[in-house]
Amino acid sequence: MSGRPEHQRCIQWHPPHAPVPRSQCATHGLPLDRSVREQPAPRRIPQKDLAMPPHLLDQLTTGLRRAWQESFVDRYRLWSARVSGIEVTQAIQYHRANEHLTDAADRSADNSVQLIAFKAAWVRVYVRSGLLGTVANVTGTLEVSRRNRLHEYEPVDTYAPQGGPVSAEQLPTYRDERGDLGRSLNFVISANELYGTLRLTARLTGFEGSEKSVNVSAQLVQTLRVRGILVAYDGDSTSAPATPGAPVTRLVLAAPTLADLQTTAATALAAMPVQATGSFAVCSNLDWSTPLDDARVAPGKCSDNWNDLLDAMSLLRDNDGNRDDVVYYGLLPSGIPLGVPGCGDDGLGAAAVGNDQTFLHETGHGYGFQHTPCGAGGTTDPDYPTYEPYMSASIGEFGLDIRDGTIHDPQLVADYMSYCRPRWMSLYQHRRLLSHPRLAPEWLPPDFPILPPLERPFNLEHLWWPDPPWRYQGPEWRMTPVISVQGRVLENGRIEVESVARIEVAAPALGIPTQWSAQLLDEQGGVLSRAVLMRREPQGGGCCCGGGHAHRDDDAPPFAFRAYLRNVAPGASLRIDGPDKQTWSRKASAQPPRFTHATAKVGGEQELALEWALEGADVKDVWAQWRCDEKDAWHSLGIGLRGNQARLALQGLPPNRIQVRLIAHDGFHSGESEPFAVDLPEREPVLALISPSGGKTFRVGRPMQLQGNLTDSSGQPLPEDRLTWWLDGVLIGDGRERWLAAPAAGDHELVVQTEWRGGVAKRAVKFTTERGLGRGG
Prior knowledge:
- By secondary structure, this protein is mainly beta.
- It contains 8 helices and 45 strands.
- Strands 11, 12, 13, 14, 15, 16 and 26 form a 7-stranded mixed beta sheet that branches.
- Strand 35 (about 655-665) and strand 36 form a beta hairpin.
């Protein structure tokens, strides 16, 4: 027997007497037949000499052809197509990680990134051709089934692909296939169907037996919960004119709205592991007059004026109870003078209206995240991994924006907490956001799928429900009486205390522990309670071009601080001790503040007029709070009130009777008024068009997410069937979420509207569609 390569055959591929070079066998990946020697081709017999009748020859030929099809072609799908993989993603997902991540520690199994219930998911079905090359015009279906308590799968729906058919290739390049929506069959499972344990079965049309199934779990519910601080600006157009002595213009900018807050959160809703509809409410309105375009105090940090603004917002957060199940966010008006685009620290962020990328970044600081190592971000997160072979702040896997299918390549896209662009959710941050307390995580019970159908899957627990749900009961939810002390340690070590307030809070004072401590003392100088001063370290947003100024020593003054002392007794004095000696003290006032009169009435439709009278006190500050009734918790209404009257915006208050109370602070004691009732008028509901944003261009035929939200004036959800969608004047459906194949090329107008007692409220956005080829990113 000859062992030479030219005498070997590929018996699964080639019929007898058809010698094939070894290289061709290797190309097809088929085993070689070493048992057959090369033989001369048989003598060709003329047709007229065949003894077999023509009809029998036809039958024989047909039989041989069928046998060839069944034994070879179908077995190895030589001219066929098959499903090679299924990727289920809501923002970022593992898929064949071993084909692009070089470090095994960075890899994980396909579809192992946790899915979130009630958030839409894209299902990308990858196809392959057989051994004879590309198969064009491949399409198919996706069958979705949900597991019940008996572990049986019940059909939910069968989906058609979004967009046209694809070409099945034999050996596509990983990056080309993963980075182009046109190289996969794409399906969208809507938010109200994405929950429980699901079995997804992809079947190719016209290719019998070409199917594949995967099981995925979406039992974790998380919600983007935001308490907005809506800032109005009345101040100079700059803190430093370009020409010394040049006149500075005055800017008067109205505060953004609750609807603006929701539209600014659009990218966060798409990128974060949260359900489709967030929970938004107003913490307070704030008037501001200082420009925010002064220089950063250090790379990655904020400016002095920014820090002053965050100090004021921190007091509003205290007045609201410093909740630990939300993130507080200051929304600045468009046109306010800015240097640093946004700032934030634990539980608090702020930036201008409409800046959705900075909203995502600053809420990240609100969740306690540091910058990641890319750009001039200053001190960065030392635990952020390097996803080899990519850059230091790479997102690590391919990301996908469910709003329109934009793909984010880990070779080009950085983590959203970095200073580089473009930015998106990374594997690292996604994992850290799972079960984050500020997202109110809840795991659906095992029997959830067989309970009665959800009438309103987005009927969310609202921000100010006074009794926390069972999953959060525990010490961290008990409102604790504290003495809140906020101020600064100056460069020379001197203490400036800006606020002392006796309040109730849910969360501790966060920050970096220092060597300074505050104490509440009795008349003999004994310590009644003590708390460490927590250094506040706000971090600024920015980009790859961000610079910096002289670096400040993190271990030395100056710095801003806050401290919560247990309010266990009235006490006789407050004291703050530094590392070397006592640096500040204040004695109790002779008589705590006492209200003799406090009322409120509606002035016009957009103002709440407050009046009060105090006696026997040197009052430094008055705070206002409100609640629905005695069962509700108190919420912030305003701080920094002076004199004996104030006018506050109604924005964020419900359209019915509420209770209001005032708290006067004299720098040591706090005195409360008796609650008093006020009836508020019904106002236009809050209607937000979250997606798409105006001015965007979409690919014809590609899925577009239409996302809106409807609440009353306080942020309480209203029935979603009151939302109706209109495209170019034609009604296309209702609800908080709709999916639309991008219409024909051209300019279009999308309108979402609702009817209420005062008429019709509507929001509109214009967008463009165009045809395109190439990569889908």
